[in-house]
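Give me structure tokens for this 423-residue protein.
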Amino acid sequence: YMQYFLGLSNFTDKPVFTPSLFVSIRKRLGIEQFEEMNRSIIKKAIEKETTQTEQNSKSKSEKEENDNEPTPTQEDTTEKPQNQGKLQMDATVADANIKYPTDLDLLNDSREKAEELVDMLYKKLRLAKKPRTYRNKARQSYLNLSKKRRKNGKEIRKGIKQQINFLERDLKIINQLLDKLEGNHNPMNNKQLKYFFVIQHVIEQQKQMYKTKTHKIPDRIVNIHQPHVRPIVRGKAGSNTEFGAKINIGLQNGYATVDHLDFNAFNESQDLIQQVEKYKELHGHFPELVLVDQIYLTRENRKWLKENNIRHIGKPLGRPVKEELTTKEKRKKRQESAERNHVEGKFGQGKNAYGLNNIRAKLSTTSKSWIAAIFFVMNLVRFSKDFLLSLLFHLFFALPKTISLPKFQFRYPHIGFFGKLAV
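Here you go.
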């Protein structure tokens, strides 16, 4: 298949590209580049939609002229509102592909990585005797506790203390071996040096939490291989805490833009004004309606929306007031509230079909590119559904006007229009 798709002159069993090629592409194509491409798709979709609207209005006016009906004059037409369209916003977490973190597992992983650094330095220095790390004893101590089906708090605390002591001893040995190096040469590569710094940060955090008897600390590391991942408390029924990047997106006509991405938790209400301003940059006007959760509607955001004549579906502040609405107004309000579910459906599409809840990139930069690429692909799929398929159907039905196709005699008249179209 490589020979076929890449156009190679003959068959070869050698790799046609290095395994790190796609990683390099994800590093080069960051989230900014993907967002530029997303904006280009949305602009093209707006142009196509505007062209189709103009064509429909032109054909309608021609039909009215043929029917000898007077066309409305400029004075008769009502002035269009300045704000048009709808903007939906919501936030979610793109889960990283890591195992559920516990203090015991994190300390064990750090200890094993520290032992690898000790072995590497021992070989580099060519010492006569390897430093004693008690790795077998530390491993057995970890397994005895982790394999227990039921562990009480006292046993877990004791196991954490043991792993902290083993890890502190390993770090002390590493520093002693580094002191024996001649000159300023560092035998660690960038990856090993990163692990060394992360492990030291982990031990400091774990010691502080052990002394204070808490499980919370600022910028807590939950995985030594992806130290940028943070625990984000969401309060959902399935999982109270999620581990990954929190993203805030804006949805307009089915097209999504990632307006804010961060591995630390943030309040999505701070992005509302910025997201609406981005909508204006794309469309040339503010949206007529903003569909958001109650968390977005702070006093400052409500005031700003009111100043720009932008409606929202949130409940008013203060005591609840009974609204006297007509049946039509109630139906419209209920329908607008239900339309906010479109952004939830976009999250479901990304997580169920495109792996938005299983980001397997290891670096923070490649993780951001991975997330942005998922939304870029979903926008392409939406664009193809809106315009490319309609163009194909238009061309298909325009064929009989230009080409005389042979008439087929169908044996089964009951199969219907789409069945005949498939045949």
